[in-house]
Amino acid sequence: MTALFSPLELRETTIPNRVMVSPMCQYSCEDRDGLATDWHHTHLGSRAVGGAGLVMSEATAVEPRGRITPEDLGIWSDDHADALAKTTAFVREQGSVPAIQLAHAGRKASKTRPWEDSEPVAPDEGGWDVLSPSGNAWPYEDESPTTRAMDQNDIESVVDSFRAAAERSLDAGFEVAEVHAAHGYLLHEFLSPVTNHREDDYGGDFEGRARLTREVTAAVRDVWPDEKPVFVRISATDWLDDRDSWTVDQSVRLADRLHEAGADLIDVSSGGIVPDSFPEYAGPNYQLRLAERVREETESDIAVGAVGGITTPEQAEGIVANGRADLAVVGREHLRDPYFALHAAEKLGATEEVEGPVQYRRAFGF
Ligand code: FNR
């Protein structure tokens, strides 16, 4: 029995193996309406056919202002949930667990797509005014007429948007909800002292900066059924040790606080708060030590996902077998190879342990 192809039980949900498809924005909504298209269905569906135990959607905006680009996926109305329902049903039919990453891009919103150089989209060109904790604009902290500091009403409305988005996600058939609190987007902007200069209850010390992420996680847990897990993706460090910034020690503390708020797994990523917030080394397993520290140092028994530079079956197996993380979260390798998990089963001699699609049985030998 391999570790990678052993199931993971979280609450009453069984993830059939430890390979998770990392959330990856596709910027592919056709009419800037946030509605899922055939592209999303095929993209997520084929990774489920490819054997991943859990297929996470891309960052899915809880309100229109929370989109990185006007072409991002959204879940702010019932029509959005309806458009995703056939995909969740298909993912489940493949034996995989459909999951959704709920997101708000904060001050990083209203940009063109990466292949259009991520330029600001002005409100009169189809963009919008963006929200942030303290009014400093991405990327260089300068003043900007379109970046606004959030007031108490904005904060309450964001928490409500996450709660409503979670309810709709359930209607759409998702079994796991992941709160996106990483990569310099809204919740991370509140967590990090680099971007949070507030003097009210949502800024200042650790508890103040962590308050919004805790409230959002609790709101999602409030509407998410007891038997289904909630994940939170964090940037475990800003990689800015030369200044007051978000650190792994704070992440460990946050993980325990999020466990109290109802989270079951921390998906451990890093960086993104400012342009120079990235690791010096980004090769194989480049964030694994961060996941390990969260796993080892938390007082709660919250589960952990490791992401970053995981590209081979042996690597993924080693991470889980050595108890370094509970899930191996695979991003870009899944773009190169939608069948990563089936190939891994073949390579690790675990074809008896997977139930791949009967249609492909002759090719893979399970
Ligand atoms: C990403 N990443 C990402 N992360 C996230 O939390 N939400 C998202 O929507 C996206 N979108 C996205 C799009 C694309 C095209 C890429 C390549 C990446 C980050 C991704 O989930 C992952 O954390 C990193 O790519 C590192 O893992 P890999 O690719 O080294 O396995």
TrEMBL record:
Residues 108-130 are annotated as: Disordered. Pfam families: Oxidored_FMN (PF00724). GO terms for molecular function: FMN binding; NADP binding; NADPH dehydrogenase activity. Its cofactor is FMN. The keyword NADP applies. Keywords: Flavoprotein, FMN, NADP, Oxidoreductase. It comes from the Archaea. This is 2,4-dienoyl-CoA reductase.
